[in-house]
Here is the input.
Amino acid sequence: MIQIRRLSMSYALDDQRITVLDDVDLDIQRGESVAIVGPSGSGKTTLLLLLAGLERPASGSIAIQDTDLAALDADGLADLRRDHVGIIFQSFHLIPSLTALGNVALPLEIAGRPGAAQRAREMLERVGLGARIQHHPAQMSGGEQQRVAIARALVHQPSLVHADEPTGNLDKRTGQKVSDLLFSLHDAMGSTLVLVTHDEQLARRCDRQLRLEDGRLAQGPANAVSA
Here is the structure.
């Protein structure tokens, strides 16, 4: 599903070059759930952005479903995300002026898929928000907003789901409910899940855990399997 080879990423800061990812190799199989853990600044979110084609690496390669991301232009990367990738953000990133229904239907409308409103309604029912479809984000709790974000990310049935700290802005109880929902939908849809988190309890729910330290993949938590 995903093949990463000798991936490196760095940024210029004043007159210095800061290395964020350093010669990373990784294979992720179709249907697998993989958690990326590590301290702040270790490169976790950068890796997720590169996998989503939202940033370009300094060197190395990323292939998704045998497609080399370096061979795609901006439109090609947008098409890949539209058709095959769902992204769940820590800060929800819902559109304030749209209802829950409008937020979830939007990816389908952009893709020109028929029956967008009905499919969005069904997905909101699936995440337990059937009674909230006409509410705007400001009228919902953080947990409800994150469920809308999950519904939006999965409504087009992507083969690959990226989740960046999906419970990071939620209290423990709400975070547990959201993580239960995320893994339930992952199991039901058979998607590949790449999860970035500081929460090692959440990470242990994945098939595999990997730890990023100083831009390199290292041994994960106690029961994890390294890359």
User: Anything to note?
Assistant: Residues 75 and 81 are 10 Å apart (CA to CA).
